[in-house]
């Protein structure tokens, strides 16, 4: 990137470091930070959405839906999340290919599982073998996203369910007394008030989500952990920039990155909680009133 | 074309974030001779065969030796590199007895891992090759067993810290292209291209360029 | 192919090493469902080992940290808060990598300590092994989370209890041992149960991070992944691990529930805090 980087072997220390940190492979490391943030930005609303559905299911009058909701939420509590991250992408991948296989290749009569192979006809593969590499990457990323949304949706469902229950019943009853249908009361009274009660749990969820992103590495996605491991390993003379095993420094950097993210998020949520607690009849609101008095 | 990208000089990612190496050059040349448009895909070593069978790519060129165990799952072209002997590498001054009874590091799912598992030594497996070297450096393992051509760079650049303990022949038919067993046509195409490169000496020239003067070449 | 009885014999202790079972793991087409059931169960030994030891040792350190965080001595408070911030604010997965790479850098022969009259070399090589190094990381991590829980509980001890203790003339260590600490434990117990469960779940990460698996000794998820990769069929291995963990989780909830009853035995029924599984943390 800099003009003096043409012959790394002859550079003095700080220039070598400047050139080293700006090689294209290091930019891949910096871009992977964006991949992590992108996953967070997309997984959070998805998880919230799943959580919403889950909370509605648990509260529903329909016993089947209630059972489904409860099973969904309990399963994620009892099973380590990493198992979901390993299982869900593979299961969805095979599931989608199987369905496409049944639809697109009806004349295929051999069983899909032969010995230890999972064989479907070539047109059923998702994405097709002939698709460019970026489509494979996007598909892999989407599967990871679904896995995240599924796992954290269950946690969000828990939080939102608790928040929905925390809104005083009297509020909803008043709405119904005014002639609103239950659905209207839900939309206009319960939902807006639910957010204050949900916020501590949701901010917690955000922290959890942030700290779960390194698991992308296990899903084969080239995230921060992948690049730290890759770039930190010893580089011999085949490479332009040789260095011994520097992995500990790279992982220190990754650690610092995550600490910065959690610290920043914590500050943001504290501020948000502060603003939302203005005038509320909770301990936080009371504390704020007394502080200014 | 599937490859690992972490095994210099066969295939690795350089600082410009490009896949380079002996096999990249060779693969591109073979594709040119066979009139195929080829695209490279990087994959972790542990899943490289399953993903070939699953269809993510059509060939494997990743320093993979054609062994009987692998030939049960995939098929191989003719070899483009004579079977590279494996070598035990350890810190200078290590007693040679560790090869039989010590702790040996190897990359998982390689022929060397199988070789160690059959001796009396304790095997520790790592997912990438350079972690095995790191294990020897910090003492977790007494020695590492890997392809000699991969280890020779580390020995040469270590200023005497690392040395070879022994060289043993590797099983297998040599480094070849891995293909799905159903892809007979593709296999024939690549075999023809490799034949032409062996015939006009360009394969030998490439081998010498990447591995130095001492590499065994094809007659 | 093994019969189920053979699978049981050769695989049930395989996670402890090659001497305790089959030398080579079943591979390829030889894998049966019984193989998967018993080998994955064998891996649970590691999970329980990590969780139990890290929790027990971490409990003591967490108490120390919680007291330090609430202490009046400024540097003690800062040190404890800093430690808790680092280990709670970063992912456990990255902590494993970082600590492993740091341990790997220690001199091979160990650290030489000059004691004045003699120089001894403390061997440090064993720390890079999973059973020690990973345990160290889990211990530090759970100490941080537990310390935060205990600290919160310390702050929520009812003022009246403390005043009553003063009225009775209990001070210092006596007051702590008889009033403060039992109350703190009682208030913290439901959250601590959650923490124990999450520690149990987090032990599955050990063999997926930098720590290598010697002689293919691994935990339940390591073997599950091995089977899923070999057979291409995730629908047997992963649900098996899931079922095992649900069973273990229920066991932990039951055990901690018993302790919860004991901690609350002096309270009237209505005032007892019931343990509600409220998952708040993942590493």
Could you characterize the architecture of this molecule?
The complex is a heterotrimer of chains A (293), B (219) and C (283). By secondary structure, chain A is mainly α. Chain A is built from ten helices and two strands. Chain A has helices at residues 13-21, 24-59, 63-78, 81-104, 133-166, 169-177, 182-212, 224-232, 247-276, 283-292, and strands at residues 113-114, 117-118. Chain A has a two-stranded antiparallel sheet with strand order 1-2. In chain A, a hairpin with a 2-residue loop joins strand 1 and strand 2. The radius of gyration of chain A is 25 Å and the shape is flat. The mean pLDDT of chain B is 85. Chain B has helices at residues 22-33, 48-54, 68-71, 98-101, 111-118, 129-137, 148-156, 184-199, 202-211; strands spanning 2-3, 6-7, 11-13, 19-20, 41-42, 59-60, 75-81, 86-91, 103-107, 122-126, 143-147, 162-168, 175-179. In chain B, the strands form four sheets. Chain B has a five-stranded mixed sheet with strand order 10-9-11-8-12, with helices on both faces. Chain B has 219 residues and is of the alpha/beta class. In chain B, a hairpin with a 5-residue loop joins strand 3 and strand 4. The longest helix of chain B is centred in the last third of the chain and has 16 residues, at 184-199. In chain C, a hairpin with a 4-residue loop joins strand 1 and strand 2 (119-122). In chain C, helix 2 (33-69) runs antiparallel to helix 3. The two termini of chain C are 39 Å apart. Chains in contact: A-B, A-C, B-C. Chains A and C meet through helix 3, helix 4, strand 2, helix 7 and helix 8 of A and helix 3, helix 4, helix 7, helix 8 and helix 9 of C.
